[in-house]
Each structure stands twice: as structure tokens, then as C-alpha cells.
Amino acid sequence: MSGEFPITILAGRLSRVCNFRVCCAVILLLGAVVAMVGQSRVPLEAHEVYVVSTAEHMRESGDWIVPRFNDELRLKKPPMNYWLTGLAGKLAGADSLEASHGRMVSATAAVALAGMTILIGTVLCGQSVGLLAGILCVSTRGFFIYSHNARPDMLYALWGAVMMAMFVLAWRRRSVWASYGMWAAFGLATLTKGPHVPAMLIGAFAITLTMHRPSRGRLLRVMRPVTGLLVAAAIALPWWGMLYLEIGDRLFESQLAGSRYMLGWSNVLDPYFFTHPFQWLMPWVILWPVAAATAVHRGRMGYPARMMALWIVVAAIALSFGGGKRSFYMLPLLPAACVWMAYAARRGLSWLAAGRRLGWVRRGGLLIGHALAAIGFLSVLWYIRWADDGMDVGDQWIVASGLAVMAVFVIGVMMATRWRDALTPRGLQRQLAAAAVVFSMLFIFGGAAAAMWSESRWGRLEISRMIREDLSPEVAVISYAANPRSIQFYCERIIHPTTLAELKARCADAHQGKQQLALILPQMMQDMIVSTISPASLEPVGTVPDCSGDQAWTLYRVK
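Request: output the structure for the sequence above.
Response:
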């Protein structure tokens, strides 16, 4: 027996390692399905068009330094997302870049972000918390929405997640290379969307070490600010230098110089970043108050929760000083929020349930409640789209199949689970993990049927079709009070947004026969525009009821 004992221990450890890796692979596979399914079903929105079109211009011109859109400088974002979109198109062997190439970057980044979430949770709190954090991540609304969007936000969130993962490795495992990996991710994030959120994270990490008394003496060894900044600068600065050589002082007059992130006190008391970003953590509402409770729990056991809370609060406060209010600015904090919620489920929720003897939890209430919410939500989406004639028979079959699969899965889990262990930490984790799978199914089947998206995207696609089929190439197309970017991408011709004065002048030229002109206009503004451009008149080509929310847009010929 004594000779077999070490072998038994080794076998048990290997089994746990293999099981952990299998679980990681399953979660990442589930995340990949959530991120990939439905990518080609949904038309691009305006900001996605900027990414794909700018990357296409770079590919055609061979100039990968200066971003341009419609042959004009586009100095809004650094080029990392454009470069990776071009790389995706090259790997796919495409002759021109398409929507799927831009979204593939975000989908791949989303899966990698889920992996970083597992790593952060595992290093800080153990394998069970890491796995639960990963499956919570892939079942959040933020993961689904931004994995299906070509904007750089998910890629930016990935670099933030890498910074967090490298920090916890440098801190807990004393890895020098992890410290430099953190700064390398800082540089890559700067090339993706700018240094603002990475700088906030660096500040939050430093505060974390300062507040942890045993780690105060290791602050400089973990953070390595001098050599680390050199690593980040070596990655990020060369592009800025080459861009300056190309465009000169115009760089300092652009958004790339940080004009959007100028600090001020006017909005600092606005709680926007403490309220609105929670929408990206849906549907895990039940975990928010429990997570808050674990963060204020005294003692060593509550420190991981306080750490995650500190990172989120520091970022929210710092962003409140800026002028921009966009909830997705907090997307890089999604991994921290998921680890925090997973830790709360492991520690706080089990304590709460056991202390109060909550019978509804004991009988699988967490799973059943979340499953009913997911099934009900998908059913309501199905009804709304069916009532508006916005869903064909094939999509209806996809949704119906999804509802059936979700129901069968829940029933199977309920029958296979021993609910006497439901109030233990492991039992609660299993309920939440099963509920996360149900919500992942909601996103998979809802995304495949395009039921999760606004009908306005298809409205703009219809206007693009009318331009291609009903207007000759000689007709110039302009727009007023209607963003034409996604329309021009699909009709493959330039559409110029105009001011009221420009609109009046161009309509006068069209009335005098100097040019052929078409106008895209919100229908509710027709009477006002007709009186403004008189004696020119508008001849409707077609109206699409849903082009911007519930707003109808009309395509007119100007006479």
C-alpha cells in the first residue's frame, strides 16, 4: 500500500488536471459557437463599415500606416483592428474584405478573452472559480453583442484581460515575464484604441498592491514601471512616429491625440459608469448584490472580491472624468466582473443559501428561474418578429428548435442531478453553469435566426438594394439627418451626408438640370425639406419603415 500511495496521489492529480483542461476546452468551444454563429446573417452597422472600409482602403493602396475612409483621413482610432481585419481577409484568400473578416477578429478576441477570464479566476481563486467565471463570461450579453461587431471594442477588451491575467501571474507566481507581458498588452491596447483604459488598469493594479500589506514591498518588482513602459513604447510608438512623418501636425488636431479623453469635473458626479455598464453582465442579476456583499466582507477570504471591485471602481471613476458616455467603454472590465461574480457564487451565495435554508434553491431554483427567463425572452423575440413579418419560415424553425433544445437540456439536468447537494458551493456552481449553458443556447439560436438584432439593419439593406436597382450610376446620392455609411457599403457607391445649406444648393442644381440627384431622408422630415428646397421637388422611390429604431427613411429623386 505504501508503494502505491504516491502513484494514487499522482493519478488523482493528473485526473484533476485533465478534467480541468477538458472543461476549459468545452467552455472555449461553447464561447466559439456563441461568437461565430450568425456572423454573416446580420448586416453591418455604421461603425463596422468604418472598420471594414478603412481596412479595405489600406489593402488596396498598400499603405498600412495612414487610415483613410472615402479617400479622406480617418484619424479616429489606431490601426490594430484594421491590420487584423486585413490579415483575416488575406488568410481567407478573399479578393476584397467583407463583414465576416472584420467580425472574425472580434469573435476570435472574444474566445481568447474567455480564456483569460478562466486564467484570472484560476490563479486568484482556484480552478472551480476560474471555470465558473469562464462560462459566465461566454453567456453574458456583452460577450455576445461585441463578438458579433467589427468595432475594436472586443479586441480592446482582450488586451485588458491579458493585462489582468499577466498581473495576477506576476503577483501570485512571481513571474518576471508576466510583468513584461502586462506591458506588452498595454502597448497592443494602445495600438487598438488608445492608452486610457490600460493606464487606468495599471493604476488599479498599483493600488491593489498598496492595499495588500504583504505585497507593498514588491510593488516595483511586480509592476516594473520603467522597463515596462519601454516595452509598451517599443510596441506602440513606431506607428505614431511613422504617421506623424506622413501627415505632420494634423495628427495633433485629431482624435488620436486624445481630444475625446480630456479630463474635466463637469461630469464626475454623473453615475453613468456605475449603472449603465451592468447591461453587458446580463442575465446574471442575482449575483450582483451577492458580489457586493463579498467585496465588503472582512478578512482574507474577501480579498479577491475586493480586488475585482477595486479594478472596476477605479475604471468607472476615471472614465467619469471624461466627456464621452458610452457603456461599452467598461467592456475591458468584463473578465474582472465575471471572476467577481463567480467568486460570489462560490463563497457568498452558498453562505446565503445555507444560512437561510432557501428551499427554492435546494430544488434547482437557480437553474429553473434562469432557464424560464431565457426561454421566455427568446419566445417574446420570436413573437415580436413574427408579428412584424420580420422572420421567415427557416428562422422560425431555428428558434423553435432552440426552445426545444433548451427545454430538453434543463429537464435532463434536473433528472440527472442530486438536489440534496444543491446548497453546497459545488451544487450552486453546477446550477449556475447549467443556467449559463441555457443562456448560451439563447444567444446561439437567437443569433442564428437573427432574432437578437434590430430590424433597422435590414431596412438599410433594403435602401441599398433600391439604390443599386432603381438609380443609374450617374445619379449622385446624398443624405440628410440619416447616417449613410452602412448603406453605401452595400450599394458600393459613395453617399455624402450634407448640411441643410449644402442640401438646398445641390437640390437647386438638380432642379436646373445641372446634375442628377437622389436623397435619403427620414420620412418625418419630408414636409420641412420640401418647403426648404422649393422650387425643387421630391419624387419618392421607396420607403423603408425601420431604418433607425422605428424611424422610416425614404429614398427620393430630386426634381
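The first strand starts at residue 68 and ends at 69.
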